[in-house]
Fold each of these.
Amino acid sequence: MKKIYLDHAATTPVKESVIEEMQPFFSERFGNPSSVHRFGQEAVMAIDKARKKVAHFLGAKEREVVFTSSATEANNLSVLGAAGGGHVVTSSIEHSAVLNPCKMSSGSVTQVPVSSEGVLRVEDVLKEIRSDTTLVSVMYVNNEIGTVQPIAEIGKAIGEINKKRKKKILFHTDAVQAANYLSCDVSELSVDLLTLSGHKIYGPKGVGALYIREGVTVSPVMYGASHERGLHPGTENVPAIVGMGKAVEEIDFRKGEEVKRLRDKVIDEITSSISGVTLNGSREKRIPNNVNLAFEGVEGESLLISLDSEGIAVSTGSACASHSLSPSHVLLAIGLSDRMAHGSLRISLGNETTEEEVDHLISKLPPIIKRLREISGR
Amino acid sequence: MSKYYSKEVMDRFMSPKYFGEMKDADAVGLVGNPRCGDEMEVYIKVREGKVESASFRTLGCAAAIATSDVVCEMITGKSLEEAVSITEKEMVDKLKDLPHVKVHCASLALEGVKEAVKKYEGK
């Protein structure tokens, strides 16, 4: 059976060119970057090269980029290390890698609601800012429904507010789901902190990066030696960092056009061939590779398992497969009922997704929905 | 094929034998709620104190559908007393295995049976 992967928001395959770039750093050039001898210095140079590539992508200085072991770690550093226990303003649809550090923060947290389209209104964010606010953290693109948030607009508005403030508010964005298709230029976005992940951009797992604007103080959340300015203590994961540098270098926004065409085909064909289907999240303000559909009368996990048995890998909008039985906080935040939230499916395309694969999904889905609706009687 | 579920669970999910509304049922047990994602209806037809036939309609995950199907099979031919004393473990054993986080689906299916029997006896 042909295997079709349509879950790129979960993770992406590592590109051949990235693997090639990483390969020498496992056994041949394995040195510890903290070592003074040439083995170590080779590794230092490799990390510097990767840092240069990431900095170039962000329009940042090399010293403003810190490598971490994941985007989760970069988000923890932003919330726990940069907010300084002050008031944090964030959105109701953030990833748990922001929401859960917020819960651990000693300061208070305000979650700004989103519209039924899954998009934040700039003014709703601004009106939550208080005199003790130290950090605003808003994701660039939502991981479940793919909606693009007005980061540049929020960044600009915070910049205006900061002109009148002694203690400046920091602005962080989790750009993990955006980096493949949208500009992450930190000046354009007016952000102080920005999170990237290696494995969402056809690079390896186990590596992330945090952009920290020069002059911004971030405290460690883990303690050890002085690796990565002391913010990521622990010997650098050299092959992964090298891979992430290469993956960032190879990002090509032009790929988004074809991905978007296929995405629109999926949305149009499924919503016309199957009744009782609605698109979750704005169609216009949406990342090119995300489809998230709510199906009446079926439950997302049974849909996922049925598609998996046809070789098609997608994801649910529900947390049914995890330990939590409550529906996705993102889908509830955009106003879906519990039942529709449980009946939602995320289909995330990739740069290598073909028209044939998309057509296969489009043809396999209607009979599956029909069968599950017969079983549910709804 | 998914390694998440046993072959037995997958077979019952892909080809359940007991699904469908029973128009002439003697009682129906409605359980579950939209919050947890699973909603089940268990239909029973009773003759001489025994479950003559059973069927279900389930809006839920693969485990919810498989456990609905297996419970209908297990209660068929049983006395009402026997039907309500089936345990989760017996169901899990019959399904060969069920992921730990899905055992609540078996509990829900059993609740459906108990609810149907209660309705029947309350008639």
Note: The interface with chain A takes residues 1-2, 4-5, 10, 13-14, 16, 19-21, 33-39, 41, 57-62, 64-65, 101, 104 of chain B (CB under 8 Å).
Amino acid sequence: MGKTLSEKIIGKHSSKEVKAGDFVIAKVDVAAVQDGTGPLTIDKMSEVNLTQVKNPEKTVLFIDHAAPSPRKELSNAHKKLREFAKKTGSILSEAGEGVCHQRLVEDFVAPGNILIGADSHTCTSGALGAFATGMGSTDVGIGMALGKAWLKVPETFKIEVFGEFGHNVGPKDLILSLISKIGSDGATYKALEFCGKTIEKMDMSGRFTLCNMAVEAGAKTGIIASDETTKKYLAMRNREEDFKEIKADNDAVYEKIIKIDASKLKPTVSCPHTVDNTAGATELNNIKVHQVFIGSCTNGRIEDLKIAASILKDKKRNFNTRLLISPASKDIFIQALQEGLIEIFVKAGAAIVTPGCGPCVGVHAGILGDGEVCLSTQNRNFKGRMGNPEGLIYLSSPATAAYSAMLGYIADPGNI
Amino acid sequence: MSIKKGTAWKFGDDISTDHIAPGRLFHLRTNLPELAKHVLEDARKDFASEMKKGDFIAAGRNFGLGSSREHAPAIIKLSGVSGVLAKSFARIFFRNSINIGLSLIECNTDLIDEKNEIEVDLKNGIVKNLSSDIEIPITPLPDIMIKILNEGGLVEHIRKHRDFQLL
Ligand code: SF4
């Protein structure tokens, strides 16, 4: 019987044939924590006297959620991560280097790997053809120390996408529509395997956006076969030797197959307070926006910034709408500077936020006021997410966000 | 795991980790007793201050969706909640709860009303609504998770075996 991508990768890491539903102890290639979950990870390890990590050069601690630190409690949490990294020889990604998931795909995760991360959007790396899943501090701490984790091999939903995206419609609209269709718990415990002509043609940036949001449908991971596009991406990161071709068997068994025609999609927006609560951007013209955020591990890549810049060039943000833009990593920031995108944004009235999570998690940089509306390119709009339960968060693509920042209300960029 | 009795507090569907342990209290993550004073604050303002040790949470679908923050189940446990009953749980929250020894019970919570008295016998997998005098069937946990819970969580498991002894 054929195997899905997840079955293949998990099988390799537990040295036996596995199928969906099996429980295994699997070898872990890369383990990661961030500044919100890392300190507890360290505490949990020391509770059991685990003081070393198995693979220091593949154990990464990210200072990205509250970076640079806005208050002393967090500065102390950061100190703890730095000291741990030093003591164990693990890698520390400092404030300003970027969001963990972007940094992981840039420099750490390779096709065929297993990555566990103490952050729910760890599934982003699945776009490289890896099995990448989010866990809590305890699981990841033990994984870091022992170099393995217990896993249930997930059943897989095959998401087959065909057709061409319309003007200013893209991967974000695709994933928001899919989540709306299956619900915020529609894929709980499952893997979402994206495939089909549209995915084959999609750049890595779009693939990362899709896999990033798999968890918003409850999934354990999003995953995509590695191919020439993956190879080129790794080569661009000077990691050609990390490439490995990995794909599902033609006769793999899927729990469900969902087909999506990309040409039928419209600019889509998630409305407060759940991601599956979507509407078309055109239907939301009456929603005035106080803040637009373009960035995050979902849509802070160079391709996203280029789309936003193409809309904002020689334009201004609406007088009543503030605009925050954060490149997802240091290298994206540099490229955006070199290509003149940052100048376009600043001239349009944007505030540039340090590469990292920025306003997405509600700790600093862009906390909403009572009753304020934010349109964000991030992945979550839960009540209180951006630091204030009285704030209202809408989610969209970078194109919709940039166009809405210009007009001051939620607007459909398909019409530009 | 003995039999536990307590009062039910009702919550709706899609209670996220942001409801349980909000991002605006990020700085309290290294001070769990303080953070626990705000548990579930953004879902029900009255909960943290008025719940009693031993009470149960009875929620709808997809409890605990969202982030991987283990602080969420940790502060529910720390506040003295005996267990969370829900129609379903989000994956990472589920795993985290078992790892830290917080009991989760998947069952039809439509059969529980606000302030009903609940009795849970985890060992035999029985939930009773004492107020309406009905027994509520539950979905059993996978064996691997029962093993972890029985040993008091994953940390205890590793302390004892120095490795995974779960399969
Ligand atoms: S950008 Fe937002 S969703 Fe992504 S890792 Fe940071 S806080 Fe989480």
Note: The pocket of iron/sulfur cluster is lined by residues A 65, 99-101, 119, 121, 296-297, 357, 360-361, 378-379 (CB under 6 Å).
Amino acid sequence: MDHERYLRQQDVEGLGVERLQSMHVSVVGAGAVGNEIVKNLVLMGVGQIDVHDFDRVEIHNLTRSVFLREADVGASKAGALVARAAEVDPHVRLCAVEGDAWRTLRLAELARRDVLLCAVDNFEARMRMSQLCMLAGVDMVNAGIDSRHASVEVFRFSRPGPCACVECHLPDSAYRKVAERYSCGWLRRAMLAEDRIATTALTASVAGALAVQAALRIGGGEVPTSQRVLVDTRNGTGTAVALRPNPECPGCAALWPRPRRVPANGDWQAALAAHAGGAEAVILSDALIFDYACGECGTVAHAARHIGRRADEFDDRIMRCESCGQLAVRVDIRAEVGVDELRERFGGSPLPLKYLLAKVGEPDAVCIDLEDTP
Amino acid sequence: MTLPQEFKLSIRTADQTRRSELAVSPQQTGAEIIQSAVDHWVLPADADYTLVNVTQGRALTPHATLDQSGVRAGDELEVQPVLVAGARRCGASA
């Protein structure tokens, strides 16, 4: 290994070459901030970097994304970013993961990461990454920007004891924005107007620097609690505040103490029996469609294409009956269900979910990791 | 220490272009203080805000009262934007 490459940084306290090369991090979001984060991680010589994004490069990304070019328009953002970032330092192992990180990032895999850096463009994805990091016990660094400010939040999920999550300090307006994306009952709205926020490469650059600084310092114990830094990039002012756990947080209050994570090993019923035998109900990682019937036609033939699938695979157009054409379909979607009913409805099949959360005592809970298979 | 029925604190925006002295009740929540600031300063109503106590260096949870959040007379609060990484207010997930 060519240590001379890192000559100017290796004496910086806490940023030794060996330590950085041993790190394996996940970056979720390959937009403006994600580009800056990866740029800094690669320049610093972080050993392994996985980049998750489902999106494609658009022309307007090019004014803020250091690794993207006109030739990349239409290509996978994660793929284009990784291909160009790999040119910076051949010693860094980069991996592009195309798809929704909620689907592509397994809990057992995430648990082996040093930190997850989150640079996504909406509250829902942040909440979901927070949930995953909390269950995996992995620290999370959350970066955000507008046209003037850069903010970076650190959530110390790897530490013992209660810890604030992304939702602990979210205002109600954030939940309203999430709700706007859905019609009744977890079905996405087919038609959704997008409202773009003005941003620049300048705020993205500051956010990327602060995020990587925080991510690399976590392991050295310099960030003992969850915190948020907000910088006004125009006037140079900023604040750093502690983020304390919110005892009424909808995201984490019910998940303390943290659920014990156990593998399903391909048999969720056996795992439930072995680790959560006394549980009467479970919380599902994703809302599932339990029933689908037309108010005019009754049970319809195409119901079978929906029942047992995740609600997020569909939008609200499925409420129009394919047989009679009326907007009369009643879809029974649930994110929490009795164990007996779950067995009765889906007993013979694998569940298309990430995990099941079951209360096995007060206050103990278990997380059955459905994606952790031999 | 019990706060008086009404006490004064300072409040500012994150860019520090707006500042006010405010008489508040200890039973007011962070969310109510934010709404007052948005109305008073005519801040963009479609943005998302959070409140931090810069004197004590900690964020306030939206539905906790000032008393529960340990806010003291004379503290300075800051209304901050809640930021995501750019592109869309309601767009696709990553």
Note: Chain B has a mean pLDDT of 88.
Amino acid sequence: MNETLAFILEWVIKGAVLIAILLTGFAYTTYFERRFLARIQIRVGPNRAGPFGLLQPVADGIKLIFKEEVEPAEAYRFAFLLAPVMTMVPAVVIMAVIPWGDKVVMFGREIALAVTDLNVGVLYLLSIASISVYGIVLAGWSSNNKYAMMGGIRSTAQMISYELALGLSFVPPILLAGSLSMSEIIQGQQSSAWYIVYAPLAAIVCFIALLAEVNRAPFDMVEAEQELVAGYVTEYSGMKFALFFMGEYIKMAAVSAIFATMFLGGFDGPGVDTYAWLGPIYLFLKIFGLLGLMIWIRATLPRLRYDRLMAFGWKVLIPIALLNVFITAALIVGLGI
Amino acid sequence: MLQDYLNDYWPIAILLLLTTLLGIVAIGLGYLFGPRRSNKRKNAPYESGMSPIGPGTRQLPVKFYIVAVLFILFDIEVVFLLPWAVIFKKFVDEGLGNFVLIEMIIFLGILLVGYVYAWKKGAFEWD
């Protein structure tokens, strides 16, 4: 009985810590993005709230809480309320299988630095990533607004198209590790080399597909305000809008963590075998670097036209990803990696 | 055995619960502190300042349904690839590498016919 209680306590603490980290991370990703973008565009960015504008996210949060929530009269109310939650929840839950480090001993117990370690980790990632599509469909449909409907449907078509390339680009790491478990994929990279070395093509396809999956530039159809106003978030305001925002940024961090785990060795780094606590620091640095790359891409590349975006996904990314699966498989057979 | 198996999934259930709670609290905060001064104009669907014309949800281009159907087909293909990828190395270790590789090439070759057909039929064209 005591053992069960200890387990439940461990799970609740892990979950709460993960949520706390992600919320803080979300707040400061928005700050980081605005400052970094501003620097690229030779502006200063937000610098008024607190030293260097560091309290800006707090100010934004408080402002959003006190904003009026406009609910369109013709919206389908329950689905309209459900959609933001359904977008935010998968973004957090997807992080559950990402290992943050090796096992450490705390309070006389051996604790794995991950919420859980599923033996079907990659499958879990793909399925939860698919679930977040529902939030977008629901938001677009329940708003009962033409822009929202079009934006929602477009984003959905884009996400499911790029999900195929994403799934295919996960195959080479699985081939190399021989497992679907995230921790075993990291172990495989520790014993040989990071998989970006063996499967660079898959890593590139994966990164592009992940960008499309989180609706980031150059795939940010949602923000194509000339044609769609704000896409599926057109009718949302106040905290409901904040939840969509939260979902987007947490998902950015989540996909960075996924990319880091699949191709950049996850928490792997020099000295991590002797000092287990270095693991989370390495993973954090990798996520931070990838987030910076995403923001840099947003500052550099123009938005793709929708037909080109779909054609690119179906005609270029999927064949390349499929081909790369066989290149990797042939390399394993031929060279015995 | 079953207990161990479920122990991997309980943390996810707890995380799901906590996150949903967070979402509900966030929406609740907005309702609690936000002002509500609604009127007929404000609650009308947004249409760039014009009075809305017709229903908000209407027919969609059939293209999107084609994409959805193609997605299901190719996603199943990915799902078939995953278990193959997991056991691939074990077969290679037993010297059966070429055998499983060619098996998968045949399977995907059949699917490739469908892919080329969809391409030629213009399922990936958007104009």
Note: Chain A has one domain: 69-335.
